[in-house]
C-alpha cells in the first residue's frame, strides 16, 4: 500500500457533508505519532542513499521553526493557513527536486515525501472553520537549499512541530 494512503483513507472516512471532520485525526494521538515516525524514517532512509547529488536548482523551503508562545496566541485558522503555506512550499520544493534526482534511492524517497506532504496539504485545505477555502499566495519565510536531505529535515520538523501542536490545539476543542 502506498505511503500516505492511511492519511488519505482516514480523511475520506471522516468527510461529513462536504467538510472534513478532523476529530478522529486529532483525537487519536497515535496517528500524528505515526506520521512523525514516518517522517523520521524517510529522513533516515534518504540519508542512507549513496552519492546524492547537490541540487543544481536550489529547493525553496519554508522556515518551520516557531516560538511556542507566539504559536499559542494565534487562532486555529491562522495556524492552519501558516501550515498550508509551509506545505505548499514543501510540495513545490519536493516536486522540483524530483525532477533533478535521477538516482534510484533518492528519487524513490522524494516521491514518498511528495505523496505525504501532498496528502497533508489536501487534508488541511478541506478543514473548514470561520473562513472560506484556502487560497494560495501566502509568503512564509523561506530559505534555499541544495541538499536533498534538507527537504526531509524540513518536513520532519514541520510534522513534529507545527502540525503536531496544531492537532493538539484542535484536540482541546474537538475531543471532549
From TrEMBL:
<dbReference type="GO" id="GO:0005179">
    <property type="term" value="F:hormone activity"/>
</dbReference>
<dbReference type="GO" id="GO:0005125">
    <property type="term" value="F:cytokine activity"/>
</dbReference>
<dbReference type="InterPro" id="IPR001323">
    <property type="entry name" value="EPO_TPO"/>
</dbReference>
<dbReference type="GO" id="GO:0038163">
    <property type="term" value="P:thrombopoietin-mediated signaling pathway"/>
</dbReference>
<keyword id="KW-0372">Hormone</keyword>
<comment type="similarity">
    <text>Belongs to the EPO/TPO family.</text>
</comment>
<keyword id="KW-0325">Glycoprotein</keyword>
<dbReference type="InterPro" id="IPR009079">
    <property type="entry name" value="4_helix_cytokine-like_core"/>
</dbReference>
<keyword id="KW-1015">Disulfide bond</keyword>
<dbReference type="GO" id="GO:0070374">
    <property type="term" value="P:positive regulation of ERK1 and ERK2 cascade"/>
</dbReference>
<keyword id="KW-0732">Signal</keyword>
<dbReference type="GO" id="GO:1902035">
    <property type="term" value="P:positive regulation of hematopoietic stem cell proliferation"/>
</dbReference>
<dbReference type="GO" id="GO:0005576">
    <property type="term" value="C:extracellular region"/>
</dbReference>
<keyword id="KW-0964">Secreted</keyword>
<feature type="signal peptide">
    <location>
        <begin position="1"/>
        <end position="20"/>
    </location>
</feature>
<dbReference type="InterPro" id="IPR019767">
    <property type="entry name" value="EPO/TPO_CS"/>
</dbReference>
<dbReference type="Pfam" id="PF00758">
    <property type="entry name" value="EPO_TPO"/>
</dbReference>
<protein>
    <submittedName>
        <fullName>TPO protein</fullName>
    </submittedName>
</protein>
<dbReference type="GO" id="GO:0008283">
    <property type="term" value="P:cell population proliferation"/>
</dbReference>
<dbReference type="InterPro" id="IPR003978">
    <property type="entry name" value="Thrombopoietin"/>
</dbReference>
Amino acid at each position: 500500500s502506498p505511503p500516505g494512503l492511511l492519511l488519505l483513507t482516514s480523511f475520506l472516512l471522516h468527510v461529513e457533508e462536504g467538510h472534513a471532520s478532523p476529530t478522529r485525526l486529532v483525537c487519536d494521538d497515535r496517528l500524528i505519532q505515526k506520521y512523525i515516525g514516518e517522517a523520521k524514517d524517510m529522513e533516515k532512509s534518504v540519508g542512507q542513499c549513496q552519492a546524492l547529488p547537490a541540487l543544481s536548482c536550489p529547493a525553496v523551503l519554508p522556515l518551520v521553526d516557531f516560538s511556542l508562545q507566539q504559536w499559542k496566541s494565534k487562532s486555529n485558522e491562522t495556524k492552519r493557513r501558516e501550515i498550508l503555506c509551509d506545505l505548499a512550499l514543501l510540495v513545490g520544493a519536493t516536486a522540483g527536486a524530483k525532477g533533478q534526482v535521477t538516482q534510484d534511492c533518492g528519487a524513490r524517497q522524494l516521491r514518498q515525501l511528495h505523496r505525504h506532504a501532498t496528502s497533508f496539504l489536501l487534508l488541511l485545505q478541506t478543514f473548514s472553520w470561520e473562513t472560506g477555502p484556502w487560497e494560495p499566495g501566502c509568503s512564509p519565510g523561506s530559505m534555499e537549499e541544495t541538499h536533498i536531505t534538507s527537504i526531509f529535515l524540513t518536513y520532519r520538523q514541520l510534522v513534529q512541530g507545527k502540525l503536531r501542536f496544531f492537532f493538539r490545539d484542535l484536540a482541546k476543542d474537538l475531543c471532549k
